[in-house]
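Annex B. Sample input.
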Amino acid sequence: MREDGFWSEEFIAALKMVAPGTPLREGLENILRAKTGALIVVGDSPEVMEIAEGGFEIHTNLTPANLYELAKMDGAIILSSDAKKILLANTQLVPDPAIPSQETGIRHRSAERVARQTGALVISISQRRGIITLYKGSIKYVLRDIGVVLDKANQALQTLEKYKAVLDKALLTLSTLEFQDLVTLFDVAKALQRTEMVLRIVQEIERYVIELGNEGRLISMQMDELVSNVYEEGLLIIKDYSLHKDKTPQEIMATMAQWPAEDLLDLSLISRALGYTANPGFLDQAVTPRGYRILHKIPRLPLPVIENLVATFGNLQQILRASIEKLDEVEGIGEVRARAIKEGLQRYRDQIAMERHF
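Annex B, continued. Sample output.
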C-alpha cells in the first residue's frame, strides 16, 4: 500500500472533506480526544452497501456532536458521499477477507480492505494509538496534528523563498544573455531546472494547505505572492527553445514533473526533453530564443501580436534589430505599437542591466 505517495484528484477531494474547519474533522477530533475509536465510511455506493450488515438507519445531518455520540457504539458509521449526512450507524462491515492487508489491528484491517474493495474513503480512528488514518483505494494516509503540518509548511515556505531567489537569478542571467545573443543550451536547461524545482516545492506546500484547511490561508497567500507566473515563465522558455513540433510546452513540463529528483539534476536530460541530440559538449552549443518570453515582458502586448512578430522575424535578435518601419509592417502592429515595442524592449534591457548591477 502506497503511503504519502502521489495524490490523485480523488484523494485530494477526500482530504478536503476532513480538513480543519469542516464538521467532519471537528467530529473526528472529538472522537480522538475521547479515546473512543471509530470506523467511518464516506459513501453509500452499491459496493459499500453490499458489505454492510445490520445496524440502523439514521438519515440525519452530520454534526460533530452526532458523529461523536454515534461513535460510542461498536459498529461502523456510513456517511453520504458528500459527508453531509449520517446514513447508517452501528453497522458491521464484511469486506472480502482475501484482500491483502498490511494492518494488524482489526479496525484498521477492515478499513483498508473496505477502501480497496469499494474505492470509498474510509476513516479509522485508533483508540489505543490516538491517530486518524485515511484509506482511499490503495492510499493510506495518517492525519497529522495541525501544529506539525503548520511548522512543515512554514519550513517549506522558507525553502521556497531561497529557491525562488536562485530561479530569479537564473532567469535574469538568461534574459541578459538573450539580449547579447550569447545563450547556450546549458543556460536554458539551468533555468528550466530551477523552474521545476520551485514548482515541486509549491506542490508540497499545496498539499500542506489542503491538509490545513482554513488554517492554511496565510500560507497559501504567501506562496501565491512568491511564485506568481513561475509556471507560465517555464512554458515560455520551452516555447522559445523547444525543437519539438509534436509536443506542446505543457506536455514537456508535465513530462519533467514526473521525473525523479535525480533525473532533474541532469541538464542533458532536460536538453533532450527539448528535442536536442545529446553529444559531447552539446550543452555548450549556442541557441537563439524565438522571443516569446522577452516579448511577454512588454506591457499590454497581445498574444496574437507576439505570435505575428515571431512568425515574421523568426527569433529575438531579428526582432531587436528590426526598425520601427519593419515592425509597423507586421499584421496587428501600427506605428504607435511599433514604437511601444521598441521602447518596451529597451526599458526591459535597461531594467535587467540595473538588476544585475545591484
